[in-house]
Recover the amino acids of this structure.
């Protein structure tokens, strides 16, 4: 039960940061998203993001910052196996499911639905 | 004839012999629904794109205005039109359909009144017996053009405005029955350094105030001359700023006399943020609702000040501020 509470609080806090970036600093949605992804990547690089996920569960793994963490994680894991070139080949390894799903489901819904404006 | 620095007096008082307003589903739920000639339940109008739908709105507005003026397409001598889409394609493509000599204009949301001023001048000077003015905007097309496609789902702050989906058109002629255009004031471009495309009302308010002041100064009249003074699409935020600025500059316009088309258009409970905007906001409100009120003799003299934010997506991305313009036209019956 405690985990649910922390997931709610940490996940909510990441969203609050995003909202503050848009409303306070007037960042565009794209800039806000990139800022969160890069922050997640930096935290992941220092090995801190996985601790956050252990602590807050989906509160940390669902927000877009988790995507940055996964990018770095994939690159580092592959680099350990195959050397420097692994940074390039591994970067989308973990995240490929998410990216492919976005493209495929985006394509399918574009086929079926018409935007209402 | 030039009066003062930037105003024109039309001696012959060109007559608006026919006018039309076409709207979309959101407008149909608004305050002015009964003043539209035609309301559509769908923003696509059976077309393949929003831009094509906007052209359809404009075509229908022009056809209806011509019909109400008792004319045929071939009788129209000149067509002046502008809109918000790149290279004003809804206007140009409507002109292709109409096959009438065409002047494309661009004044963003001030296009309708810019067009009405120019059409009145053409008719007043005797260069034509009549001229057609039109303008259009489309909510989804404008979002795509200026901000984000609505499908992208970007958030909007409460200062944002809702672009009116629709089109307005009017036929101005030397002779006939109807409200008459008596004067116009052409505005300067004013830039107070605002750069937020989600707060156009605040950016445009100083331009509206500048033109209103110029109008009264040039014509040497005061606000009591008019029954109604309506700005184009300042919305709630810009309307309040304009009211404050006017008071500060010593021009006291009674609250009930100063209104804004962006506020008139929608009902309080519609999710339109600070109010309506877009070329069609002032065009449909004026060519529909306000001219109807004049024809019913509820209003005798009114001043319409259409405001336009002259930004482009490029200028916004390059972090430029938003220059604004406002043009005023006085109509009486």
């Amino acid at each position: 039960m405690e985990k649910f509470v922390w997931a709610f609080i940490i996940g909510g806090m990441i969203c609050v940061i995003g909202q503050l970036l848009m409303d306070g600093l007037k960042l565009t949605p794209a800039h806000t998203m990139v800022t969160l992804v890069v922050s997640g990547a930096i935290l992941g690089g220092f090995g801190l993001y996985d601790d956050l996920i252990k602590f807050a569960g989906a509160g940390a793994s669902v927000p877009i910052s988790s995507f940055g963490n996964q990018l770095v994680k994939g690159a580092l894991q592959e680099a350990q196996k195959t050397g420097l070139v692994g940074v390039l080949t591994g970067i989308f390894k973990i995240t490929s499911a998410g990216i492919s799903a976005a493209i495929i489901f985006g394509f399918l819904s574009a086929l079926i639905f018409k935007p209402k404006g | 004839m030039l009066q003062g620095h930037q105003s024109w007096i039309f001696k012959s008082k060109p007559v608006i012999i026919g006018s039309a307003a076409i709207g979309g589903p959101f407008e149909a739920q608004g305050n002015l629904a009964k003043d539209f000639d035609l309301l559509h339940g769908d923003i696509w109008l059976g077309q393949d794109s929003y831009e094509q739908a906007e052209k359809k709105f404009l075509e229908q507005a022009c056809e209806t205005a011509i019909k109400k003026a008792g004319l045929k397409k071939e009788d129209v001598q000149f067509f002046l039109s502008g809109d918000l889409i790149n290279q004003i394609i809804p206007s140009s493509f409507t002109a292709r359909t109409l096959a009438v000599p065409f002047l494309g204009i661009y004044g963003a949301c001030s296009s309708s009144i810019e067009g009405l001023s120019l059409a009145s001048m053409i008719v007043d000077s005797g260069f034509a017996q009549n001229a057609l003015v039109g303008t259009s905007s489309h909510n989804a097309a404008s979002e795509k053009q200026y901000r984000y496609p609505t499908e992208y789902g970007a958030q909007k702050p409460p200062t944002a405005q809702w672009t009116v989906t629709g089109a307005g058109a009017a036929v101005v002629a030397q002779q006939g029955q109807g409200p008459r255009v008596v004067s116009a004031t052409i505005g300067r471009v004013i830039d107070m350094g605002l750069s937020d495309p989600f707060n156009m009302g605040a950016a445009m308010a100083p331009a509206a105030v500048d033109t209103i002041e110029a109008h009264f100064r040039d014509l040497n009249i005061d606000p009591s001359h008019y029954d109604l003074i309506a700005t184009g699409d300042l919305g709630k935020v810009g309307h309040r700023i304009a009211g404050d600025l006017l008071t500060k500059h010593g021009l006291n316009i009674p609250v009930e006399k100063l209104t804004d088309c962006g506020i008139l258009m929608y009902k309080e409970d519609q999710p339109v943020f600070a109010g309506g905007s877009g070329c069609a906001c002032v065009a449909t409100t004026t060519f529909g609702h306000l001219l109807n009120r004049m024809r019913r003799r509820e209003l005798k003299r009114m001043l319409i000040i259409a405001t336009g934010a002259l930004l482009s997506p490029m200028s916004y991305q390059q972090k430029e501020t938003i220059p604004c313009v406002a043009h005023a036209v006085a109509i009486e019956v």
